């Protein structure tokens, strides 16, 4: 994905407030050289941030006619307005090693024995993984194949097929669960006995 940035000359709280009022977003780019303060068009940025790839892939930033590769590293939103307040980007090159969270895309769930035969639902325990790799090798997402999922068994990190250059950070957990089938809850049927019929004489049939 490509976006256009503009050099930001004025800094400080007051300058940032004026930028936001004018429909701009203050931002900074760091790494691989001197930090650069920039500004972005808010509407263009807001719509770009709705796309998953903007958060998890290398972006091409055009600034003063030059294009550099960057990653979205952090952003701040207004507490209750749909407004981006500030964005941080990191420059990357072929030697930059990064640690970043990448979304998981689950496929084959509806064809798994757990769903088709045993009518389970599948609980996605985690929806993203934190990985370490070279920036140039960063995947936009990681695919998790659930087509072989069976009742009573879960999919773990070690079950995911990853390229050799990708290392998952599990933070002390040896093999975390990624997805697990949940058996359907059996419905409890309550049988209510019918009341004896009245014979019209004030007596209940079936009683002497």
TrEMBL record:
Domain spans labelled Large ribosomal subunit protein bL25 L25: 5-89
Keywords associated with the record: Ribonucleoprotein, Ribosomal protein, RNA-binding, rRNA-binding
Classification via CDD domains: Ribosomal_L25_TL5_CTC (cd00495)
InterPro entries: Rbsml_bL25/Gln-tRNA_synth_N, Ribosomal_bL25/Gln-tRNA_synth, Ribosomal_bL25_b-dom, Ribosomal_bL25_C, Ribosomal_bL25_long, Ribosomal_L25_dom, Ribosomal_uL5_bac-type
Gene Ontology biological-process entries: translation
Leader sequence residues: none
Alphabetical list of Pfam families matching this protein: Ribosomal_L25p (PF01386), Ribosomal_TL5_C (PF14693)
Domain Large ribosomal subunit protein bL25 beta: 97-183
Highest taxon listed in the record's lineage: Bacteria
GO CC, any one term: cytosolic large ribosomal subunit
GO molecular function terms noted in the UniProt entry: 5S rRNA binding; structural constituent of ribosome
Family stated for the protein in its record: Belongs to the bacterial ribosomal protein bL25 family. CTC subfamily.
Function, in words: This is one of the proteins that binds to the 5S RNA in the ribosome where it forms part of the central protuberance.
Subunit composition and interactions: Part of the 50S ribosomal subunit; part of the 5S rRNA/L5/L18/L25 subcomplex. Contacts the 5S rRNA. Binds to the 5S rRNA independently of L5 and L18.
UniProt-recorded name of the protein: Large ribosomal subunit protein bL25
Gene source species: Paucibacter sediminis
């Amino acid at each position: 994905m490509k976006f256009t940035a503009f050099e930001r000359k004025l800094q400080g709280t007051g300058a940032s407030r004026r930028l936001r009022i004018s429909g701009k977003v203050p931002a900074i780019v760091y790494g691989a050289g001197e930090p650069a303060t920039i500004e972005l068009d808010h509407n263009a940025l807001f719509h770009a941030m709705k796309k998953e790839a903007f958060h998890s892939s290398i972006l091409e930033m055009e600034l003063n006619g030059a294009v550099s590769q960057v990653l979205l590293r952090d952003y701040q939103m207004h507490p209750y307005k749909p407004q981006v307040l500030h964005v941080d980007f990191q420059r990357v090159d072929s030697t930059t090693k990064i640690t970043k969270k990448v979304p998981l895309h689950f496929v084959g769930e509806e064809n798994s024995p757990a769903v088709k035969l045993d009518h389970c639902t599948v609980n996605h325990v985690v929806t993203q993984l934190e990985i370490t790799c070279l920036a140039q090798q960063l995947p936009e997402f990681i695919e998790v194949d659930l087509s072989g999922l069976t009742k009573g068994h879960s999919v773990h990190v070690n079950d995911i097929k990853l390229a050799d250059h990708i290392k998952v950070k599990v933070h002390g957990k040896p093999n975390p669960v990624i997805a697990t089938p949940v058996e359907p809850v059996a419905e409890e049927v309550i049988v209510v006995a019918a009341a004896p019929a009245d014979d019209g004489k004030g007596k209940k049939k079936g009683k002497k």
